[in-house]
Amino acid sequence: MRSFRIVAPTQxxxxxxxxxxxxxxxxxxxxxxxxxxxxxxxxxxxLGESLAAFFGYVYIQDRSSMLPPLLLNPPEGAAVLDMxxxxxxxxxxxxxxxxxxxxxxxxxxxxDRLETLRQNLRRMNLLHAATCTYSGERLPLAARSxxxxxxxxxxxxxxxxxxxxxxxxxxxxxxxxxxxRLQRELLRTAAELVAPGGRVLYSTCTTNVRENEExxxxxxxxxxxxxxxxxxxxxxxxxxxxGGLAGVLRVDQVASGAQGFxxxxxEKPGSSGKxxxxxxxxxxxxxxxxxxxxxxxxxASLGLADVFDWSLLPPGRIYDFGGKVxxxxxxxxxxxxSLRWQGYLLGKLAGKTLRPQARxxxxxxxxxxxxxxxxxxxxxxxxxxxxxxxAGHGAYAGLxxxxxxxxxxxxxxxxxxxxGG
Length: 421
Hints:
alpha+beta; Rossmann fold; SAM-dependent_MTases_sf; MeTrfase_RsmB-F_NOP2_cat
């Protein structure tokens, strides 16, 4: 039972579904999130090889893995911290939930996994997400500065045993104590960072009570957090929580056709007023922005007005960092100056003009330099190296198929070709 979510503005979801159907896929809404989550009913070839997946319009994700962001349920426009983010499944869903006016900071402690996180966010065109890499228990962020925190820490993974049978050997019961200690350190950090009235959604993909109910009870007893009862989402079956703990959810993996998952929502007591402590040594927000190592660019200075409608950018700024051009979400600009983080890579500078990364589609114009195709086979031909004759004279043109913006084509003479990976 393969599930996926559609990563597109509401008005374009029917177009994504039409593109999937054009390649032979059939699906139905998931009852727990029917607006954006789907379950395959026919898969003529691997969904990951579909055009919709290639261009970041669908993201394959176990249905249990979708629950933590949905149950954290950040409001539109909110700022969310994802403490252990790679590969970006939950980070991406959080970014969808908060919308372009919101902000998600995805921290991935492992540098080896950081690039996977960034690639997935770029593929999905989630410009309002930023990334950093710190040990989760030593994040240089202000105390009480986040209303919504997602913590899906390293765990033994016993809930994935059907797909990964080796986890029971790798993380046998006598080997999990280091994980338990790490999870408690991460919970302690989350308790410090969450604002009064804010929430931490703690989740694991294990069935181990030591990493689940016992950790939740410890956080409530030792960290001053309160368990906020979770309502069971539709379409799942749940096992009774162990140890008599109330208000948490333990997914029955067999009955739910999903990974075994544990979820608990922990709330810090207090009013949900202004968040955060400020370190006066960091300076004001404007002073922190002035200390950014790059130089700010005006969209008009980047050219490509016949390809991109820059007014479609989310709130934020564009900066040049050594020839690489990044979009920086507005809320990210208020992060502590001591935090090293990265925004969304738009492309590189070629002289004074942007050479965009090929999958950049969020701001593509519907007029101007455009290549419109109706047949998905023609798009696949472009991806395989074929070029097409295209009207116009600019160095780049937007690629559209069946009403969906897909990416940027490069012009060579009178021909247009796909120059992305």
